Amino acid sequence: MFRKIFTYTLILLLLVMENSMWVGHPEIILMSKISIDTGRVITDAPKQLFRDDMPNALQHERQLQDNRVFGAYEQPPTFPGGTKALFSFIRANLKMPAKGKKAGISGRVFVAFTVEDTGEIKYINIVKGLGFGCDQEAVRLINSMPNWRPGTISGKPVRVRFNLPISFIFED
């Protein structure tokens, strides 16, 4: 008898947890009746307690889709003026750090960042660095860039993760 009641209580708890996670709001519980005699779920019960100020599951799903960052796209994000303008911007604004000059460092810093659907650059991080102040200079350079043209999927602007190698060359 105890085992049967425990089993039905566990099933009810799992149903409530699964249904509340599906909606995306743990405080909303989907209501279902469980027959104590047979253990079957009775589906003619009211399905959801609604509050007017809460988004429904479809709105929540759309919001999640809007916040996705893409790696595959139809049109990649582009610097204003294209690739040649990007290289000119880097050449004009990149400064070799004093520590790097003193150590005679040369190499590439690989920087990853997100180009938002508005073209704004966010979430900059170093994938592979050189040290000696070169990593900080690469981040400073990316932060100083103007807004890009965002990448697109089906003609709509989307957030895209972008990787950019920046070369540091030691010159006497």
From TrEMBL:
Coarse class of the protein's main subcellular location: membrane
Which GO terms of the cellular component aspect does the record hold? plasma membrane protein complex
GO molecular function (one): energy transducer activity
| Record has Heme as a keyword | no
Any Pfam family from its record, for instance, is: TonB_C
Q: Which domain of life is it from?
A: Bacteria
Please list the residue ranges annotated as the TonB C-terminal domain. 81-172
Membrane topology is: Single-pass membrane protein
Against InterPro entries, the record matches this protein to: TonB-dependent_transducer, TonB/TolA_C, TonB_C
Report any one BP term from Gene Ontology. protein transport
Q: Which Gene3D superfamilies match?
A: 3.30.1150.10
Q: Which UniProt keywords apply?
A: Cell inner membrane, Cell membrane, Membrane, Protein transport, Transmembrane, Transmembrane helix, Transport
User: Where does this polypeptide localize?
Assistant: Cell inner membrane
Which NCBIfam families did the record assign?
tonB_Cterm
State the family named in the UniProt similarity comment for this chain: Belongs to the TonB family.
The name this protein goes by in its record: TonB family C-terminal domain-containing protein
